[in-house]
Design a protein that fits this description.
heterodimer; A: 351 residues; alpha/beta; Rossmann fold; 2 domains; 6-stranded mixed β-sheet; 5-stranded mixed β-sheet; elongated; B: 428 residues; 9 helices
């Protein structure tokens, strides 16, 4: 529990710092003692729990055009003030200002290990960029909502600094960070399941504890008109990789994929491959990799003239507990490469 | 079918000259138990150790956990098929030693690519012990080593049998004692249910108890001593489940035999039976490793629920990881299509921060899900003074006895799939 008054540093842009408007947007970062402008509202909300010991002011363009470097520069400025916490903005709907607030909050959390809070309007691009890393209080689009936003920001900041619980996004007014964790229910899951079923059978309202994903609908590519001239590729998420796993693809939650040449090969020799996947029993594939990546049959079809050509490389990754974000990114990257190589069809094998 | 669990409360366990219970203290003749277990030619040496609640002790590579139980009376059979011959189960009196667990330790866990090499652990004190019932019972740890030349599969089978034997051996000591409490489990035969209260909905429990996701072991004696890797869905009386007809499949992640014997969902359905619902029975099913067989199992389960048990609603649970989640969701979907309301309770294996995804499936009919939490969440565990099992050095350096961060999935019983846990996932 924090008992000493908090040493808080406040970040604002050139406009709220009283330096000027767009014409001063290239103002370099400067730090001054005590609260300035909206910092007075911060000080008021803090009361005797803390003190705004310094204010950093920086021009919006100066920050937004070199985010990483300026973030580091500003973080350095804070250190001599030995801050316990950082408050940034609120930035309302000012995009460059919002991005600066988010980037700085994220940086001080990881570099200085101190809590931080900012505030923005929901349309500020800084929200999507930083809500997963930083508590961003939802606010209006103009300075009218300043006092309310600042009071919520300070309330969260104080509790972060003193290791107190932060409630749900809806109760506290911050943007949900999408972070998953466990909480403890008053009832066991067995009890909750029975209550939920009784309500559902009675036609009463119930609230599911998990929300179903709505997957993107992908429009299928048109049929291949002439298979006998088509190049066909093999792609798998079953984790078949050359011995030694040269691309160091993860055994689960993969972020990488590999491209492995099969040029001129009639088939895959078991001694040259291994299964890099913890989501299924890979022993049958280890015995004969064609059970996953059927190069043998594809060569037959190639000889028979049913397909034009088997593409010279197969792609492999590990599909187990892989995040949808990574799966999508890898899929797009593989598809782009295949398209460039004029591959017109893919056989995807999964496990 | 009327089952009486005669509960003998055990407040301490120690080693002594003979195996007996006096004033709530279980004394074990360590040598006698060892000799009993070493009769199995598949096993070499068998070590027995005790771990008590509050002790600074960490048990490694735990395989199954079993509550000591023994049937009372001539016809009653213990774990029929797996241990005893076939006979009465689910009926009549059973002696239960409450407050004690038999914990089997799988020495072959060490060095397994698929697993954490120190396996699922049990802490006897600290935050790890708080999260699981197995940290609060007096634990009789059974650590058998394989005999020379015995296959891995045979060793693992022998390990299971050693656990069951120990559970029965210990509970035999309580059979002649006056129980501290008697729990009675009885539901009328299906035909008679509607003669009672017609206005109550009929509810069944769909229990997915095995998944063909990994190899498993051959002849795993899960259901009346038989393996279940090819079963079609079938109906069991809940008392059969509670009284030893079912044991945990090898590496039945989140469904230990102890939890099957004390099945939280079955027990709660019994509590509500005749008040809010009629408990119509248990449908057991498995997850296959291919779409065709999963669809087939889903159809059969749903038909049993709708047309044989004539239920209004079912609760479904799953086992293991992601592929079984798809299989159980298909079953729920098929039930909903037939007008049987469903609640699916499961841990959130597929929960994904990156796109705010909670489930693998997206069947819109499966709209009532109870969260059993996120199994990948780590918690910090303190240093322990005593280790049971053979430690493997941590990959990042240090020892498993140190202060460590460990995901819930590697703490036995911290996050189960049968409804015991209070943990639920949340986004914040």
């Amino acid at each position: 529990m924090q008992t000493k008054p908090l040493r808080v540093v406040h970040y604002i842009n050139q406009f709220f710092g009283g330096i000027g408007g767009e014409d001063k947007a290239y103002t370099k970062p400067q730090i001054k003692d005590g609260p300035i402008g909206p910092g007075k509202a911060v000080q008021q909300a803090l009361g005797d729990r803390g003190e705004v010991v310094a204010t950093v002011i920086c021009g919006d363009n100066y920050f937004a055009e070199r985010i990483e470097e300026v973030t580091a520069e500003v973080t350095e400025l804070l250190i001599p003030y030995r801050p316990d916490a950082l408050i940034a903005g609120p930035a309302f709907d000012a995009g460059r200002y919002g991005i600066a607030c988010g980037a700085l909050c994220k940086a001080v959390q990881s570099k200085l290990g101190i809590p931080s809070v900012t505030g923005m309007h929901e349309e500020n691009p800084g929200v999507d960029m930083f809500k997963r890393h930083v508590y961003i209080v939802k606010g209006g689009s103009s300075a009218k909502g300043m006092v309310e936003a600042v009071s919520k920001m300070v309330s969260i900041l104080w509790r972060l600094a003193s290791d107190q619980k932060i409630g749900k996004p809806s109760e506290e007014g911050y943007f949900p960070r999408g972070i998953l964790g466990n909480k403890t229910s008053e009832r066991t899951s067995a009890e909750r399941a029975i209550s939920m079923l009784l309500a559902k059978m009675a036609g009463e309202r119930f609230e599911s504890e998990a929300i179903l994903p709505k997957y993107d609908r992908v429009k299928p590519a048109p049929f291949i008109k002439d298979l006998s001239s088509a190049i066909i590729a093999l792609v798998t998420d079953g984790g078949l990789v050359p011995k030694g796993n040269p691309d160091r693809i993860e055994v689960k939650e993969a972020t990488r994929f590999g491209a492995y040449s099969i040029q001129g090969a009639d088939g895959l020799k078991p001694e040259n491959y291994e299964i890099n996947h913890v989501g299924y029993d890979g022993s049958l594939v280890a015995q004969d990799p064609h059970r996953l990546v059927p190069v043998d049959v594809m060569r037959d079809l190639e000889k028979e003239g049913m397909i034009g050509k088997l593409y010279d490389t197969f792609y492999a990754t590990t599909g187990v507990a892989t995040s949808a974000e990574n799966a999508k990114r890898m899929g797009q990257a593989i598809a782009a490469r295949l398209k460039k190589e004029r591959v017109s069809g893919v056989i995807l094998t999964s496990t | 079918m009327r089952l009486e669990l005669n509960i003998v409360s055990i407040k301490d366990v120690n080693f002594g000259a003979n195996t007996a219970i006096k004033d709530g203290v279980l004394q074990i003749n360590q040598r006698e138990l060892q000799e009993l277990l070493e009769e199995d030619k598949r096993l070499g040496r068998v070590e027995i150790e005790l771990a008590h609640p509050g002790e600074k002790c960490r048990i490694l590579q735990t395989s199954d956990v079993i509550e000591p139980r023994a049937k009372i009376g001539e016809s009653g059979k213990n774990f029929p098929g797996a241990l005893d011959q076939h006979g009465t189960v689910g009926m009549g009196p059973t002696c239960v030693l409450r407050g004690v667990s038999v914990v089997t330790i799988d020495d072959s866990e060490r060095g397994d690519f698929y697993r954490d090499m120190n396996g699922e652990i049990i802490d006897m004190s600290g935050p790890g012990a708080e999260l699981t019932i197995y940290g609060k019972t007096h634990n009789v740890a059974v650590l058998p080593f394989p005999a020379d030349g015995v296959s891995l599969s045979d060793y693992r089978l022998a390990l299971k049998v050693a656990g069951l034997k120990t559970a029965v051996y210990l509970a035999e000591a309580g059979k002649s004692l006056k129980p501290d409490a008697i729990e009675v489990y009885e539901i009328p035969p299906l035909m008679d249910i509607e003669k009672q209260r017609k206005d109550l909905p009929r509810v069944a429990y769909v229990f997915q108890l095995f998944a063909a996701q990994f190899g498993g072991i051959t002849e795993d004696p899960v259901l009346y001593g038989g393996n279940v890797d090819k079963i079609v869905p079938t109906i069991l009386h809940p008392n059969e489940v509670l009284d030893g007809a079912l044991i945990s499949p090898y590496r039945g992640k989140g469904i230990e035999t102890y939890m099957i014997q004390n099945h939280p969902i079955i027990k709660k359905l019994y509590q509500r039976n005749g008040k809010d619902l009629h408990f119509a029975g248990v449908i057991i099913t498995i997850a296959h490793n291919n779409e065709h067989e999963n669809r087939r199992a889903a159809t059969i389960s749903a038909n049993l629920a709708k047309w044989v048990l004539r239920t209004d609603g079912v609760i479904l649970t799953k086992v293991f990881g992601g592929a079984p989640e798809m299989a159980i969701a298909q079953t729920a979907q098929r039930c909903e299509e037939l007008g049987v309301k469903t609640v699916l309770a499961m841990w959130q294996q597929a929960a994904d921060d990156s796109q705010e995804i909670d489930t693998l499936f997206s069947f819109q009919e499966v709209n009532a899900i109870v969260s059993m939490g996120i199994l990948f969440e780590p918690i910090s565990l303190p240093h322990m003074e005593r280790i049971i099992g053979r430690p493997v050095p941590l990959s990042g350096g240090g020892s498993i006895s140190d202060k460590i961060d460990r995901q819930l999935q590697w703490i036995k019983g911290a996050i189960g799939q049968l409804g015991t846990s209070r943990l639920m996932a949340s986004r914040y």
